[in-house]
C-alpha cells in the first residue's frame, strides 16, 4: 500500500469549510500519480510512448467529511492488474486514522491518439508487477 499526504486547503472546501466531494477525486488521482512516480514511472514517459492511463470507472463512497486544514493520508493499493488495466482500492483518512472516503478505481491504458485500449507498455507492467 502506498500513502500520499494531503493538506486540505481553503480552496478545497465549500462555504462551510467542508471538502467539496469532487475534490476527493483529485486527492486520489494525485496519490495514483505519486505512486507511479515512486516506482520510477513519470507521466511524461507514458506520453512519449503515446499512451496514458484514463479512469474508466470510479466507485466513491463518502463516509465522513474532511475539513479545512485537516491533514489527510491518501492510500493506493493495486487490487487487480491486467494487460491493459489496473484496478485500485483507495482510501482517504485523517492523519489520526479516521476513514473518510473509500474508492475503487479502474484505470485503462489507452492509445492517446485513437483513445482505444492498448496493452500497458511491458517495462511499466513489469515495474507495477514487482510492486504488488
TrEMBL record:
Q: What is the protein's name according to its record?
A: Tol-pal system-associated acyl-CoA thioesterase
Which gene holds the coding sequence for this protein? ybgC
UniProt xrefs under PANTHER family:
4-HYDROXYBENZOYL-COA THIOESTERASE FAMILY MEMBER (PTHR31793), ACYL-COA THIOESTER HYDROLASE YBGC (PTHR31793:SF37)
Keyword check for Magnesium, yes or no. Answer: no
Task: Name the InterPro entries on file.
Answer: 4-hydroxybenzoyl-CoA_TE (IPR050563), HotDog_dom_sf (IPR029069), Thioestr_dom (IPR006683), Tol-Pal_acyl-CoA_thioesterase (IPR014166), YbgC/YbaW (IPR006684)
Report whether Cytoplasm shows up as a keyword of the record.
no
The UniProt family comment states: Belongs to the 4-hydroxybenzoyl-CoA thioesterase family.
Alphabetical UniProt keywords: Hydrolase
**Pfam families, alphabetically?**
4HBT (PF03061)
Name all Thioesterase domain ranges.
Answer: 16-101
Tell me the GO molecular function terms.
fatty acyl-CoA hydrolase activity
Q: What is the lineage of its organism?
A: Bacteria, Pseudomonadati, Pseudomonadota, Gammaproteobacteria, Alteromonadales
Read off the SUPFAM superfamilies from this record: Thioesterase/thiol ester dehydrase-isomerase
Amino acid at each position: 500500500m502506498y500513502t500520499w499526504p494531503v493538506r486540505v486547503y481553503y480552496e478545497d472546501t465549500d462555504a462551510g469549510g467542508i471538502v467539496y466531494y469532487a475534490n476527493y477525486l483529485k486527492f486520489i488521482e494525485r496519490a495514483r500519480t505519486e505512486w507511479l512516480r515512486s516506482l520510477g514511472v513519470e507521466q511524461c514517459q507514458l506520453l512519449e510512448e503515446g499512451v496514458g492511463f484514463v479512469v474508466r470507472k470510479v466507485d466513491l463512497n463518502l463516509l465522513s467529511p474532511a475539513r479545512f486544514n485537516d491533514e489527510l493520508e491518501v492510500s493506493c493499493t493495486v487490487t487487480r492488474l491486467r494487460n491493459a488495466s489496473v484496478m485500485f482500492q483507495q482510501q482517504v483518512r485523517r492523519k489520526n486514522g479516521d476513514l473518510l472516503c473509500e474508492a475503487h478505481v479502474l484505470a485503462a491504458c489507452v492509445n492517446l491518439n485513437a483513445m482505444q485500449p492498448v496493452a500497458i507498455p511491458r517495462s511499466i507492467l513489469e515495474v507495477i508487477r514487482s510492486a504488488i
